[in-house]
Write a structure and sequence with these properties.
It is built from 27 helices and nine strands. It is mainly α. Among the domains are: 143 residues, Glutathione S-transferase Yfyf (Class Pi), Chain A, domain 2, CATH 1.20.1050.40; 64 residues, no CATH class; 185 residues, Neurolysin, domain 3. A hairpin with a 5-residue loop joins strand 4 and strand 5. Helix 13 crosses helix 21. The longest helix is centred in the middle third of the chain and has 34 residues.
Length: 678
């Protein structure tokens, strides 16, 4: 059988033929992709005509399509459905792919042609989007070392190759550490306090491994309820320590040295390119623009939220002392447990009481229905579209006028080959062909939600409903993409703007009108009772300041690593604890370390960018105030958000797009107001 990547797919909407792809297909297809792109690049280089927008910039934008098609599938599956064979291929090919990419960006003849076009940009009469592509292409070369001397180019090649191998190793180590740990309980008394749903899931997990009793893991649907509900303090501590010491142990999966190498190599690359720090390099292409603006945001929020955060922790500690005695010291493994008890006391809200109303299929109908109500789009499962795992579903998405808009894949539950967390990705981006055909995207949302058990469907927590809305917001950004060039399509925007479409969707989770559209008891069909909705709304700001300081701690840690001007060779744990000290509300435990498992900033694209979540939260609070003012299902407001933000991708500066929707620049007031701080 011939390699499916190297022939027409002949699938619905030209979707990836997962049912025909074998692991042995990836390496030859990637090598063929590199070979074809080399030929395409050589054709640009050898073209004797005067370089212009068409024969250089446009041709460059259209090159590498085969390689992109294969590597997109390969690296997406490295996150969603990996195994030792895929890992081995990645380790083998990452250095070659980096070298291939460097051969293009560091080619002096190619860069000279790009530069010639760029230098006459004012006389080219380009459209705004063409101009943006030209600037992005030129900047891309500069930021990837095209202006360096020959010796420095060699150094850049070496550093970037090492960096790509290290990020891969970091991720692999973390996934293996997560999968390695299990808390195996054989005495029913040790389950005291745990809700039925958690016990059933743990029993299901044990049976799956051929063991008696109950197995709890470090995957969120298992870890989170255990920390919230287990009456066994020693076991909570054991789970907490297992989770927070991942990749610190004296074994092959220790990431301590990898962290040092990652931050040092990023700093070296930035300094090689003429920046003082890696943060300076990153932030030049962000809304925040520089470290000072990031620190201003972090410090402003720290000042605004700290008093409330300390009060929140004091209140939880008081409750703990009521139960345990006055000499009780609240530790990190106690926080979720007593916070849940306080939440229940104050608002009569137990997350477990909500689960029966959040059956996954109903939540999905609710979230899809929200998009229908806001934008008129509809979702229809298409069983003819091949998927990469039996639990994955594929949907055709149609616009309000019935025209085809996108493919959406959904992948909801944890597996051993799937990394933790939740994310949206694309298997194919959107672009407009030269003949005017609008080539539509294939988008995927991947989560790690509570699994169904033998006798119950998947029943979600409220925070999992929030996560669904968040990732679905990213998906809409991809689904509505409507730009001419792929490199600016959908989520290809400034990193501190990319979270706005996702975070704005989370606002709907505490809106009664939305909850009433889908929240029904999975057995009786009863609509979610008024008192539970009231509890959800009343409790939406419960521990909001604590949660803010937690996010700020990650932002400060990220900036501490990437505003360095000198090589780091200290103690990773000590450095981390000093970096976020002013945000800590509970005792720090010596053995724990976040940096060694902090995939976002070490291997996941958020290096010097973790502040983006808080930055976008300011934007989303401000933007959602328009929906609140006009009605949360207002089609006109939604259409404006689609037209001005979701469909525009990276075709203009994000602040320009934002002001076009909102009519003004955002401030933190809307966020402070929403959180009850002001």
């Amino acid at each position: 059988m011939t390699n499916p990547f190297l022939q027409p797919y002949n699938t619905p909407h030209d979707t990836t033929p997962f049912d025909r792809i074998k692991i042995s297909d990836y390496e030859p297809a990637i090598r063929e992709g590199m070979k074809v792109e080399d030929e395409e690049i050589n054709a640009i280089i050898e073209n004797t005509e005067e370089p212009d927008f068409g024969n250089t910039i446009l041709t460059l934008e259209h090159s590498g399509k085969l390689l992109d098609r294969v590597t997109t599938v390969f690296f997406n599956l490295m996150s969603a459905e990996t195994n030792d064979e895929l890992d081995a291929i990645a380790e083998k090919l990452m250095p070659e792919l980096t070298e291939h990419s460097n051969n293009i960006s560091l080619n002096p003849v190619l860069f000279e042609k790009v530069k010639k076009v760029y230098e006459k940009k004012d006389s080219l009469k380009l459209t705004a989007e063409e101009n943006r592509l030209l600037e992005k292409t030129y900047d891309g070369f500069i930021r990837n070392g095209a202006n360096l001397s020959d010796d420095d180019k060699e150094t850049f090649r070496k550093l970037s190759a090492e960096l790509s191998s290290l990020t891969l190793k970091f991720s692999q180590n973390h996934l293996k550490e997560t999968n390695k740990y299990e808390l195996h309980i054989t005495d029913r008394k040790d389950l005291e306090g745990l809700p039925e749903s958690a016990v059933e899931a743990a029993e299901h997990a044990a049976k799956g491994k051929g063991k008696e009793g109950w197995i709890f893991t470090l995957q969120a649907p298992s870890y989170v309820p255990f920390m919230k509900y287990s009456n066994r303090r020693e076991l909570r501590k054991q789970m907490y320590m297992a989770y927070n010491t991942q990749c610190t142990h004296d074994d092959e999966w220790n990431n301590t040295d990898i962290v040092k190498q990652l931050v040092n190599k990023r700093m070296e690359i930035a300094q090689l390119l003429g920046f003082e720090t890696y943060a300076d390099y990153v932030l030049k292409k962000r809304m925040a623009e520089n470290s000072e603006n990031v620190y201003k945001l972090l410090n402003d929020l720290l000042e605004a939220y700290s008093p409330a955060a300390h009060k929140e922790v004091e209140e939880i500690e008081l409750l703990a002392k009521e139960t345990e005695g006055n000499d009780f010291k609240l530790m990190p493994w106690d926080f979720s447990f007593y916070a849940e008890k306080l939440k229940n006391r104050k608002y009569s809200l137990d997350e477990e009481a909500l689960r029966p109303y959040f059956e996954l299929e109903k939540v999905k109908e609710g979230v899809f229905g929200l998009a229908t109500r806001l934008y008129g789009i509809t979702f229809h499962e298409n069983k003819d579209i091949p998927v990469y795992h039996p639990v994955v579903k594929a949907f055709d998405v149609f616009d309000a006028d019935g025209s085809f808009l996108a493919v959406l894949y959904t992948d909801f539950h944890p597996r051993e080959g799937k990394r933790s967390g939740a994310w949206m990705t694309s298997y194919k981006e959107q672009w407009i062909e030269d003949d005017g055909t609008n080539s539509r995207p294939h988008v995927s949302v991947t989560m790690n939600f509570t699994k169904p058990t033998a006798d119950k469907p998947a029943l979600l927590t409220f925070s999992e409903v929030n996560t669904f809305l968040h990732e679905f917001g990213h998906a809409l950004h991809g689904i509505f993409a409507n730009t001419r060039f792929q490199c600016m399509s959908g989520t290809n925007v400034y990193w501190d703007f990319v979270e706005l479409p996702s975070q704005i969707m989370e606002n709907f989770a505490v809106e009664k009108e939305f909850l009433n559209t889908f929240a029904r008891h999975y057995i009786t069909g009863e609509v979610i009772p008024e008192h539970l909705i009231k509890s959800i709304i009343d409790s939406q700001n419960f521990n909001v300041a604590y949660a803010c300081l937690r996010q700020l701690s990650f932002g400060f840690l990220d900036m501490a690593w990437y505003t360095r001007k000198n090589t780091f060779d200290g103690d990773v744990r000590d450095y981390e604890k000093k970096a976020w000290e002013k945000t800590q509300l509970l005792p720090q435990v010596d053995e724990t370390c976040m940096s060694v498992q902090f995939g976002h900033i070490m291997s996941g694209g958020y290096s010097a960018g973790y502040y983006s979540y808080k930055w976008a939260e300011v934007l989303d609070a401000d933007a959602f105030s328009v929906f609140k003012e006009k009605g949360i299902f207002n089609r006109e407001t939604a259409q404006s958000f689609r037209d001005n933000i979701l469909s525009k991708g990276g075709t203009e500066h994000p602040m320009t797009l934002y002001k076009r929707f909102r009519g003004q620049e955002p401030g933190i007031e809307a966020l402070l107001k929403r959180n009850g701080i002001k």
